[in-house]
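Page 42, continued from yesterday. The earlier attempt failed because a stray header line got pasted into the input along with the sequence. Redoing it now with the clean sequence only.
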Amino acid sequence: MRALRLRDFPLALDGSRPDFLIIAGEASGDEHAARMVEGLFCENPQVSVYAFGGKNLQAAGAHLLYDLTQHAVIGLCEVLRNLGLFRQLLAAVIDWVAIHRPRTVCLVDYPGFNLRLAKRLFQRGLSRKGGGEVALYYYISPQIWAWKAKRRFGMARWLDHLGLIFPFEKDFFADIPLRVSFVGHPLLCAKASFLSYAPQGVLLLLPGSRVATVRRLFPLMLETFRRLQPQFPHLLAAVPYADEGVLEELRGIFAGYEDLRSYLRFVSVSGPDLPCAASLMVSGTMSLSCALAGIPGVITHKIHPLSYFLARHWVKIPYIGMANILLKRKSLPEYIQSEAEPSALCEEVSQCLRDPRRIEQAQQDAEALRAILGAQPDLKVAEWLLTSLEEKF
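This time it went through. Structure tokens are written below.
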């Protein structure tokens, strides 16, 4: 593997000091960061924004230096396989910051990479708290309430300001000297989701935005859909995709399911609204989008067995779906690891499609979730980020 160097980031600066560098390593973080950048330009069209992120940040007007989202993985074993690459990326980002000295680095989610970056910028004396002149802001906090709660002490040492998307999170940082602000949840923004509930809509299959996850879960979802066909012969399925790399992987897997070709289509997440009758999905941002849209569904997930074994010992919460975590009950059934098999999933999805109680409950849960997430924010996210340019240190 060829080592990454600064010359791999071809966009040159005009000699002025950039205002913002955004770091977003996953598809969901790229989407949320893009909305933040759009808000930045509305508030101040003159700011300069650079990014290690993805196509959404680029479309929002950020100068994309490198597509970091193409390397998103989940699970300890998966990270270890790519450790050399992540080390190269980390070193290259630090070198870029050292040379160009952006006024603010905004880290978006992706804690395995971004917290290491924050620590290294502190150790190199580049960040404000490390004695330098670069503000470190963090948008979408690591879920310390679920696992690795001690991370908050390092965050207090390295970061200048934390932007939270769940109102209850403020309590978990009350015992440390770190400024935190609730900035609202991005999925409640206008046009944050293209999904809607419709009784005669499609079955939504959501195998994730990471190639490794797609490889593990898409065959399971296709087999489940195949088993649903005799019960629902007119049912169609839709598979949203975030980028061309994921689409290529999806099509490669789907080539082995010729009998389903007339019943399934791939749709872009940036496409028109998609009416859905039910969903079968991996846990993640899109599962919360489905719940907020009132779409009844089922969560399924599989990771490397060792990663799962370790997660069971580290994670302190009983659910993996964010809707279930927020509601403190199993609003969406969860089938994980060995439980994730086609016959069980087929039965659950069929109930979502035909049981009026499941449909009504999904609508009620959507209202409850909106009430939880709709608390008045301390600041809008763009306003929060712009405070970094106003502060004296």
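Notes: Residues 83-100 form the longest helix (18 residues).
Reminder to self: strip header lines before submitting.
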